[in-house]
Amino acid sequence: MRTIFSYYLGKFCDWLGNTLATLSEKNAEKYLSKPVHPKPNPRAKYSAYQKGFLNYLDIPFDVKVKVPKTLPGYVEVSGIDQIVEWIKGRKTHKIKY
Question: CA 32 → CA 15, 19, 37, 93, distances in Å?
Answer without folding.
Answer: 11, 14, 7, 48
